[in-house]
Amino acid sequence: MASAAASAHIPSTPELCSAARPPLQMHSEHPERKRVLFVTSEFADLIKCGGLGDVSAALPRALSPQHDMRLLIPGYRQIVNSGRPIRIVGQVPGIAALPPCQIGRMDLADGLIVYVLLNHALYERDGSPYVDTHGRDWADNHIRFARLGLAAAEIAAGDAGIQWRPELVHANDWPAAMAPAYMAWRQVAAPSVLTIHNLAYQGLCDMRCASELAIPEAACGVDGLEFYGQLSFLKAGIAYARHVTTVSRRYAWEITTPEQGCGLDGLLRAKVLGNQLSGIANGIDESWHPESDPHLLQGFSVGDWAGKQANAEYVRRWLNLDADGPLFAVVSRLVHQKGIDLTLEVAEHIVARGGRIGVIGQGEPALEAAMADLGRRHRGRIGVHIGFNESDARRLYAGSDFLLMPSRFEPCGLSQMYAQRYASLPIARCTGGLADTIEDGVSGFLFDAPCAAAYRQAIDRALQVFEHPQLLEAMRCQAMRTPLYWRQSVQAYDRLFQRLLSPVSARRALC
């Protein structure tokens, strides 16, 4: 339920000042550049919980040469208090239980424009975008993120007072997935794209919330938002978006199967039949460069491994690890999806073979506790840091020989690409984007079954390679050449946007 406070007046501050309105921009300065609103719940420059934050920071920037890209994100406390000026450029009214909000504009140093959806009671809270400081979902998440989707639709309709109107809306994951639905119900002509970063998180709420969210009664059936007696934000986005993408080709296929379709495989297969589902692999941003990364103790390049050794020595000191043995890294959210329980199961095997394990991450309390206990039982051989620090994470990638990534499913994954760029060979399950980005025995090691026995076999293969320096160096060199930067991997998005915005596509959408 929405609280009365959520619809309270939003006070002005020196940073949140009204802006003069220029003439409405209906056409891009360059005809080939289209206006695209990128709707997200995370943005690594300002607030990040996972890979979505990295993608949201990198993809719009990579597409900026081709399109006028602008972001829309909730005005979390971390954003409002970031020290960057925000000026009010628009507002949206309340409807049902969705409160009125102001829309601020933040201009970043590199020219990227971020629209911030401002409502103090709704978004400015301690905790993360999704949970409180105790790790519990905010009870009004359905209000908070439906409001985000509706604001995107209002901006696309030209009803938010912003002197800029997108020609296409790109929504990301369940927190933004209501945008295509609200656009359809309001008959907004602009096409919408929904990118599924993780199908397992669907944004479910009670069916009785439909009236709070101003959802038409006709949309509440099985052909709309209804999902086993609940409302699914993600299903809404899939059903109403003009096109759906996922973050790897293999994952696009996997989610159409009952095994990984999370109950939405039938709807997704229908999207395939309509040529409305595709997999577009993520890239990594330009900061992941081992020669020049300022986070590293010392840079390195192919054939010059002194910097890699310097980072390894730092990691061993930081985590109190013995100086000998190959170094295995875990840089991950500590959650069931990531197969952390499997790593716990094989850890003693690694140690018995002379390996050392460095862990940095946080997540489910039970897995955090189990990992911390593992470190206490194997002092000097397993070092565990519960939490996250960007510099230490990058140094662990750079200093390690292997990355452990036994994910039960992985839509794309960025960690394996970060590791490869820093000459750490991933040992990963053959699933989703891991299968697309790792060539077994060439740029890493893959195993099929999500079980400890198959995982141990892949680890043993990696240890065999470690004992042959020439082969190890050859695989490191190949791994470093494997990942794509975003500027190399955005062509597919550009082609999709151009297709959806073509006159032929627009006519088909009206049929």
Automatic annotation (TrEMBL):
Starch synthase catalytic domain location, by residue?
Answer: 35-269
Q: Which top-level enzyme class is recorded in the Swiss-Prot or TrEMBL entry?
A: transferase
Name the Gene Ontology biological process terms: glycogen biosynthetic process
Per its UniProt record, what Pfam families does this chain match? Answer: Glyco_transf_5 (PF08323), Glycos_transf_1 (PF00534)
Enumerate the GO terms in the molecular function aspect: alpha-1,4-glucan glucosyltransferase (ADP-glucose donor) activity; alpha-1,4-glucan glucosyltransferase (UDP-glucose donor) activity
Residues reported to bind ADP-alpha-D-glucose: K48
Glycoprotein listed as a keyword: no
Coiled-coil regions listed: none
Cited function: Synthesizes alpha-1,4-glucan chains using ADP-glucose.
Name by which UniProt lists this protein? Glycogen synthase
